[in-house]
Specification:
two-stranded parallel ribbon, alpha/beta, 18 helices, disordered N terminus, single chain, 559 residues, 13-stranded parallel sheet
Amino acid sequence: MSQMKGSGRILESGPFTSSFKATNQARFCLKSLNHLWTGGGRVRSKQIEIENNGLCHVCSKITTLDTEIQRTFHLLNVLVLECDTALKEEVNHIHDPLIRRLPTELVIADFFPAASQIVNLFPSALMVGSVRFPKMTAQNPLCFLPFVKIGEKRCSLPLLSWMTLNVYAYVAEHIPAQKLLLTQWIDRARLLPLDISMLCTDSPIALKETDYYPVPLANILRSHAVRWHKLTLSLRPHLILRLFAGSVNLPELPLVKSFQTNIFVHLNKITTRWSDLVVCHMAYLHVDKVCEILRCASNAESCVFAQISVDLQRFLLPNEPTVHTCLKDLELRPTTSDSLPAIFDQLSLPSLTRLVYNATQYNGRIPFPISNLISFLHRSRCVVLQEFEIIGENGSITDETFIEELESIPSIRHLSLRCAGEETSWLWLTDQIFQQFGGVSGFFLPHLEELHLDVSDPLPFSWDSFLIFLEEISASFLGILSNDVDSNPTNKEPSSRRVHIDIRLHLRIPSDSSPPYIQPHVVAQLANSDWNKLIFLKISDKLTGTDLIQEYLPFGLDA
């Protein structure tokens, strides 16, 4: 309780005294607690008396003390929340992403004196780079000056803060200030490895192919290449090429673990030990370069290859597939389906746990190479593949081929299907898919734990088939649980097969659609089902996030 007393003193004379005062209620409760603990709550060696409430005098005091503790704890939480909210409002007025992510105490001590000098240098429109390349995070731009004035207090920052450099280059007038800030930051970071992100707008108005004003910043980063630990570049192609121009003189990059660019950088222009690379994201590259990267980066665990293409006239299939034993996460974003057979035929990935096929940049309607994919899965013996995701327009896939594809991956635990486009792009997501589930045997995707569907109007499947699917899934759960208990009543270990499933359905409802979008009788069955403990189901509006089951429940009750 001495700590509680200390809390009272801190509350009345803490660092926020100038801006925030403890409420009278909180101060009164602290004094009451001190009184109860030091006097009223002390046990005396005399005959125990029973109060009117049925408790002895000591127990009654303890109960009162417990109630006051809970009340005070609640009031203190409210007070802290009010202080934190007020501080965040002040910080938000600065419009700077870095300050918003720093500890509140540091913001008060170092940044508030210069807050009036900070302007909004981070327009929201410049986030487009991270939207187009989602794996690249956009945060903490070094585009303001207060850091230069901070002095020795900056040493209180964690090492991770010193290692992270996120540079946004999009205004020529800011480059001199950014150069000074960047140089000072790197010098103060001493010899720590650097996690670097450099981004600039891809707007043709804001940055033309002839504009090279971000190059001075790139040159500073390049001069410290030996310290690169993570490098993320979301720049115009001519700037990336300028950054790596003459890179034969670059030092070794012994620390590089993550290398992400929005274009392909030729391997012979980077003198790095690719065997140390763990994360690699590149775009605009040919299939043969994908295989070359994987051969060089033998320890890579996560790879994203976007804008993949293939020149069938010049492409030569190697004698043996490339075997990569470390790769766990692979995302492919081809421009045409010609590149997929070449990739699937060249690779063997026995450790793959996540496979994403992103067709948002896909052109043409050439049939999806289902046979090549199945051969790849069999060759790789992907017994640990747990996540499979399809993104984009997939008019070339039929429901038969898709079922065949899923049957070849029985280990799947997370299945995500997010597509956009015309109705024909949903030829593969029909009632037949849902009919594969069910039955006590549960042979179809027996380990499935999460099913995420993102569909648009008109629905490619019927609500009746979806309801039957839910009932069959529930029945299979009950059958599995029953069999487990009957086979070994003393075994408390869970079955290796699914015993719970998370189903999320995001609907893209047309703007001219009038509620309810889901038929009332369907809503009633979804809301009043008996399988809620076995299945977590959420159906929401893709645009607003509204829970459609709860939204349309009044319509269902009237049905």
